[in-house]
Specification:
Layout lengths: L7 H4 L3 H22 L1 H10 L20 H6 L13 E6 L9 E5 H17 L7 E4 L7 H13 L2 E4 L5 H10 L4 E4 L1 H13 L11 E5 L5 H11 L2 E8 L4 E7 L6 E3 L4 E6 L12 E8 L10 E10 L11 E2 L4 E2 L4 E3 L2 E3 L1 H12 L5 E8 L2 E9 L9 H19 L4 E5 L14 E3 L5
Parallel strand pairs: 3-4, 3-5, 5-6, 6-7, 17-20, 18-19
Antiparallel strand pairs: 1-2, 7-8, 8-9, 9-13, 10-11, 11-12, 12-13, 12-14, 15-16, 17-18
Bound molecules: 5'-O-[hydroxy(phenylacetyl)phosphoryl]adenosine (DLL).
5'-O-[hydroxy(phenylacetyl)phosphoryl]adenosine (DLL) binds next to helix 6, strand 7, strand 8 and strand 12.
């Protein structure tokens, strides 16, 4: 098999050399943040740490954590570490209100991001001979922009399809002989189903590989996608806060994702105590960006639960591997690829009902498609037995939710007192999907 490295020197670097590189970059990055981000400097001062205390990666644990709450507090420019005039791009998380995260990039940051994605595309077998169909959403979401940039960097012919319009996707895939498909795993499965319905067999399709991420997916789902599309399906991980996709990527061994450690230092912590856990422990993933100029988050708590391992990989890479995320240490759900916080739904319900109602979010997966239902209890004074009133209200809530989240939910108004009460925390979410 052809060599599948984009940057062989880095991807196969010995651990001691990598730690040296990380240490040098960390020391410089801490100074850069201290000098340019008063918000983080204050956090360091509160902890009694100065850049002089950070001499190598062994001192990383001394630095304070950052969380989504910090990003909200400092929105929009408080974490910016470069002059705005040096920034060339912003990207953002999904959702139109509430917990939006805005990430800034200088041209250097865009380049390093695209470089990380180029490694992922190369590991999936991509070369300049390939035609890459990017069916992640374009726009503020990092999926489209990230895979697009990486594909250009490798020199692939890039089809900037964005998501949706599945028949047109298939038409282009066949006409322009796309060999690599990039989208969420649920959209890949849907494209597969549509192809089958149109009478195509896996061998009729030009695809050879897929690069899928942005949401949890199981091994069973991988096998199904691989069978219906006749491809090898590779996982890719990332988050807006750390650039986007490409923080970690799968190689041909398909047993976890290699983290681009020359750009991101990964730690696993106990989500309750913040204590750093030894390699092999299951805990919350924390990233420190050591090369970014504009938005260099130090010790950022991702809330994703996973395990890191440094076992030998048959691909030859020495980069540490993370398992697929096994869950979250907060209440964020990913439904149809969109990040959803129950509090965003509650806000709409409060607005539409003028009072906090009892509600329950029920998420399931039928085949490979997520289903999303919100059961809302009508209060006694609102109770209406005319079906027309009920369906008007359901429609209004549905439209408002879609405006906020960007995805549609089935709204079911249910009778007063029919949602089970809890003596402790209310059970707001019932997630029936088996994602790990
Ligand atoms: O989802 C970036 C991305 C785009 C990754 C395209 C891969 C491909 P956010 O919208 O900020 O960024 O969501 C980040 O999505 O903290 C995880 O919980 C989840 N996530 C991302 N990749 C995976 C994956 C993009 N491969 C959040 N498996 C992260 C499971 C994933 N969950």
């Amino acid at each position: 098999m052809a060599q599948r490295y984009w940057n062989e020197k880095i991807e196969k670097m010995e651990l001691a050399e990598m730690r040296k590189l990380q240490s040098e970059r960390l020391v410089a990055q801490v100074k850069h943040v201290w000098d340019n981000v008063p918000y983080y400097r204050k956090k360091m001062e509160e902890k009694g740490v100065t850049p002089d205390d950070i001499k190598s990666i062994d001192d990383l644990h001394k630095l304070p954590f950052l969380s989504k709450a910090d990003l909200r507090d400092s929105y929009p420019y408080g974490m910016l570490a470069a002059p705005l005039s040096d920034c060339v791009r912003i990207q953002s998380t999904s959702g139109t209100t509430g917990k939006r995260v805005v990430s800034f990039y200088t041209q250097h940051d865009v380049d390093l991001w695209e470089d990380c994605v180029a490694r992922a595309i190369t590991a999936a077998g991509g070369t300049k001979e390939d035609v890459v169909q990017v069916a992640y959403g374009y726009g503020l979401f990092t999926g489209g922009a990230g895979l697009h940039g990486g594909s250009h960097k490798v020199g692939c012919l890039t089809l900037p399809m964005s998501s949706g319009n599945t028949e047109r996707q298939i038409q282009f895939m066949m006409d322009l002989k796309a060999t690599i498909l990039c989208c969420t795993p649920s959209y890949a499965a849907y494209i597969g189903e549509t192809l089958q319905e149109m009478g195509y067999k896996p061998e009729d399709i030009p695809l050879k590989a897929g690069i899928f991420g942005a949401e949890p997916w199981t091994q069973a789902m991988r096998e199904q996608i691989e069978a219906t599309l006749g491809i090898k399906a590779y996982d890719i991980y990332g988050l807006t806060e750390t650039s986007g996709p490409g923080v970690a990527f799968e190689c041909e061994e398909q047993s976890g994702m290699h983290i681009n450690e020359d750009h991101f230092i990964a730690e696993i912590i106990d989500p309750d105590t913040g204590e750093v856990l030894p390699e092999g422990s299951k805990g919350e993933l924390v990233f420190t960006s050591i090369t970014k100029e504009a938005f260099p988050l130090l010790r950022y708590r991702t809330r994703d639960i996973c395990i890191l391992s440094r076992g030998k990989c048959s691909c030859g890479r020495t980069l540490v591997k993370m398992t697929k995320p096994m869950g979250r240490s907060d209440d964020m759900l990913i439904i149809k690829g969109v990040n959803v916080f129950p509090s965003q739904i509650e806000e709409v319900l409060i607005k539409d009902f003028k009072a906090a109602p009892n509600y329950q979010i029920v998420v399931d997966r039928v085949g490979t498609t997520d289903t999303f239902e919100i059961k809302v209890e009508i209060s006694d004074d609102m109770f209406s037995d005319t079906i027309k009133d009920i369906s008007t209200l359901e429609k209004k809530i549905g439209t408002d939710i879609q405006q906020i989240l960007g995805i549609r939910a089935k709204i079911s108004l249910v009778e007063p007192k029919s949602i089970p009460r809890s003596e402790g925390k209310a059970v707001r979410v019932i997630d029936k999907r088996k994602l790990v």
